[in-house]
Design brief:
This protein folds into two domains: 165 residues, Aspartate Aminotransferase, domain 1, CATH 3.90.1150; 236 residues, 3-Layer(aba) Sandwich (Aspartate Aminotransferase, domain 2), CATH 3.40.640.10. Helix 10 packs parallel to helix 12. The protein starts with 7 loop residues before the first helix and ends with a helix. A hairpin with a 4-residue loop joins strand 2 and strand 3. It is built from twelve helices and 13 strands. By secondary structure, the protein is of the alpha/beta class. The strands form three sheets. A seven-stranded mixed β-sheet has the order 4-10-9-8-7-5-6, with helices on both faces. The chain has a four-stranded mixed β-sheet with strand order 1-2-3-13. A two-stranded antiparallel ribbon has the order 11-12.
Length: 414
Amino acid sequence: MKEKLKLENSEKMYKRAQELIPGGMMGIRRPYNFVPGEYPIFFDNAKGGKVTDVDGNEYIDMLCAYGPIIIGHREKEIDLAVIKQIKEKGFCMSLVQPVQNELAEKVISLIPSAEKVVFVKTGSDATTLAVRTARGFTEKTKILRCGYHGWHDWCVEVKGGIPKKLYEDIFEFEYNNLQQAEDILKANQGEVAGIIVTPVGHPLAHPVEMPKPGFLEGLKELANKHGAVLIFDEIRSGFRFSLGGAQKVFSVTPDLSVFGKAMANGYEISMLAGKKEIMDVLTQKVFVSSTYFPNATAMVASLKTIEIMERDNILEGVKQRGEKFSKIIEKYLRKKDFPVEFSGAPLMPYITFDKDEQGLYKKRRNDFYSGLIRKNVFLQPYHHGYVCYRHTPKDMKYAAEAVCETLEEVFSGK
């Protein structure tokens, strides 16, 4: 295995950050979510498909800021459009600017479930608004959920500081387990407002799953039967699987859906989209407001991102790059009998290690991701990766070969 990277500046900044900010930084970006001592903690800059840390180490960025980077870092066309908006018109005003309507018209033309939309800022904003909207429309309380839906009280995994009454009406079911969802609906007959599910399964630290035949269709039938609103959480899959989302790929149209991440190539925007009659409860009955939701910069970035994606066939290019990466790894693993799983190909690639009674998978996982970062490939042990358009074929070949070489090192004890 290659020598450990020099990370002195990262470690120094982390020590200072802990004196200023609880944990140094928030949530999933903390060092314990990577391999402490092996991974950088602070990045300095990014360009295209690569990032550079504060110690000058450059990496092929296959985490893509946890998904927002779909084209590449520092895309000149997008940034110039935003700069033009700032310089010529401004972006934070007491009333909305015309770009709101332009973006709404565009996304409604692309997304099957979108008859009306509301723009917010984060994935958690959008999923929480979706749940509130479903409850307002149905005048019911209970929610079925499957997937990660953010940090707000109703769904956050860590329950510290949250009274039980704020999530006691939330019921979890497993991805691809239609029977479990049906059983919960029957047990709460007439009380379920909505079912929120990620159309692609991506539970933390577990392999990425695609829907089994009939799963999403079955959820739609169950929602209709029980008078519940079906919500697709497309924060990760939207504007990545297609411009119309995974719902367009799988030909299942939900009542509501939420999008974010890739829709603006890193600028902070998300949205709730859905049927007019459901969305219209937001006119008066259900409240949503924020000082910053109407800001024009991210809307301009989103319009330009979508324009480039359509013009340059970006998503086909992303898929091709992901396939190049995946085929090398899949070919290698077919020759081996390693207790690992490669999932999520070609768009959300993830290497996971099969659990064993001795707990060897934990050491193997740490060794693998340590070896990978030393080869300057940036992936995450507990989260699937992403592919962007600015990843070059050379990048993809190098990253895939690095994965294979590192697996060989882990299982040969080198």
